Amino acid sequence: MNPLILNKYLSFVGNLFLLNCLYLLVNLPMVLMILFFPASLATLIFFLLPALLITPATVALFATCGRWQREKQINVLKDFFHDYRQNFKLAFTYGMLAWGLFFILIIDALWLLNSKNFLLLIFIVILLALAIMMYLLQCGIIGRFTVNFKSLLRVGIYGVIRYFPKLFFSASCLIILLAILAVAPAFGVAIGFSAVGYFIMTYLRPVLEKLEEEFIQ
User: Fold this and answer.
1) CA 140, CA 142: separation in Å to the nearest integer?
2) Contact yes or no for 69/106 (Cβ under 8 A)
3) Using H for helix, E for strand and C for coil, what is the string for the chain?
4) How far apart (Å, rounded) are the C-alpha atoms in residues 71 and 64?
5) Neighbours of 114 (CB within 10 A)
6) CB atoms within 10 A of CB 9
7) Residue 60 contacts residue 83 (beta carbons within 8 Å)
8) d(CA 40, CA 175)
9) pTM check: above 0.85
10) Over 60: is that where the pLDDT of 185 sits?
11) Span 111-160, pLDDT tens digits
């Protein structure tokens, strides 16, 4: 193999590995909860507090991956923490709303599953899928644009309706992450989160560019 091509691939994988480590580092409370605290319907509420840090981390991950795709070269450490600090306040505030909604829908889905009320369960699962799609888009928006909370919610709802297919494929990347963690957990922990974040931004980037054009107009 050409040494330049090999170096390019090694650099790509190295950036993914470092970015993945940073993402796990800022989500350390959740990582520790998953490792040492048994997850069940009764204990689910205790995961809510560490989950609030996931949104600022995800915003930073998406922002760094988006810059990487646009500019081709990044300083992973510098760019990630710059995006994390710059967007933390709005990301954390939005994360409280988003994760509160996720937990309500998940608890409802588990209760309906135990009750064998499959009709309402399907409805809740659809709502959860739409909420996840909107969440991914809004994390991308926070990392790319300067917006206030009200505009973020409005553009998020509009984006899901206007660009549903691309957001659907973006959300489907999360299934890939779950599959990686189930089949090859070591590989998933090493670069799974950053790799999936990179692929999600592959789908989100055109949507963000379209929203930027519409916003300017």
Assistant:
1) 6
2) no
3) CCHHHHHHHHHHHHHHHHHHHHHHHHCHHHHHHHHHCCCCCCCHHHHHHHHCCHHHHHHHHHHHHHHHHHHCCCCHHHHHHHHHHHHHHHHHHHHHHHHHHHHHHHHHHHHHHHHCCHHHHHHHHHHHHHHHHHHHHHHHHHHHCCCCHHHHHHHHHHHHHHCHHHHHHHHHHHHHHHHHHHHCHHHHHHHHHHHHHHHHHHHHHHHHHHHHHHHHC
4) 10
5) 10
6) 10
7) yes
8) 21
9) yes
10) yes
11) 898 888 889 999 999 999 999 999 999 999 999 998 889 889 999 899 99
In the numeric block, which tokens belong to residue 63? Answer: 């922002």
Query: In the block, which residue shows the tokens 């409370």?
Result: 29
- 149 CB neighbour count, 10 Å cutoff: 12
Distances (CA, A) of 36 to 39, 54, 184, 201: 9, 18, 20, 31
Token pair of 201, please? 């931004």
Mean pLDDT of 61-68: 95
Locate 33 and state its tokens: 């909860």
Nearby residues of 14 by Cβ (< 8 Å), 6 or more positions away:
none
pLDDT digits (tens, 9 = 90+) for 27-51: 999 999 888 887 666 677 788 888 9
Share of the chain above pLDDT 90, in %: 55
- Provide mean pLDDT across the span 189-205: 92
First CA to last CA distance, the chain: 47
